[in-house]
Give the backbone structure.
Amino acid sequence: MAASVRKAVFPVGGLGTRFLPVTKALPKEMLPIVDKPLIHYAVEEARAAGIEEFIFVTGKGKSAIEDHFDHSSELEALLRSRGKEEAAESLSRWLPAPGKVAYTRQQEPLGLGHAVWCARHFIGDEPFAVLLPDDVFLAAVPCLKQMVDAYSGRGGMVAAETITGADISNYGVLDVSDDNGAVVSVRGLVEKPKPEDAPSNLAVVGRYIMTPKVFDYLDRQETGAGGEIQLTDALSWLATEEEFAGIRIEGERFDCGKRTGYLRANIAFALQRDDMRDDLTSYIRSLGIGA
Ligand code: G1P
């Protein structure tokens, strides 16, 4: 039987320059969508897919992420002393189990491939997931769960979305050898191609599963697009060694690395909430936009 996917890597070392000044002192992964930080959604999604071990590749100024995934003893005690048991409980019930969360630091910003390579000693000899917290999904079946359900022992799998027009140049793009619907066979990937060079209109959207064989390539520390060590290049190599697939994800993705994508996500997630939907809907209607 194929090994299950039990470990996930969260690259959270990025500087978040697109969100300055808020990210001057706050990690971009701690920006809230409604009332939970971006990274919280990625961890929840991983857990829903059966992930048991959470590996964060952090960087300078990211300690708020570690604090978020730890007990806040004073706050919990204060809430309990005020009889707010449920509120206290809600601060900690989603914490990773003791010893099941690890932090390592990417000491230099050398690229996404390098960030994942920094986690290599935590992975060992089993397939693992990578989740980029910038991409947030609103889906009946969480994105990574859709992938884990379809993975079945391949060398790798990426979440894919059709992107039209010149925007394709912002993504890793799939070179598809066989397109059978939801799951496509992939023979290579290209990082941020010019639109005219894109091998397809299917782009990688921030969720990956791969075997540790990927480290054979990343060990070489070769640079690619933008002079960075690219995960996409490592996966393109992996696709020549092992069976590799892309899966079209059912649901809506928000690119929270972009300010408008981030704001859209806030609106969409707030509209899901019973305590906010009516108020927000009447406000949006009152704006009379596009009526
Ligand atoms: C990264 C990856 C890219 C992928 C994208 C998805 O790019 O390098 O291949 O398509 O995430 O969000 P970034 O957005 O960090 O530039």
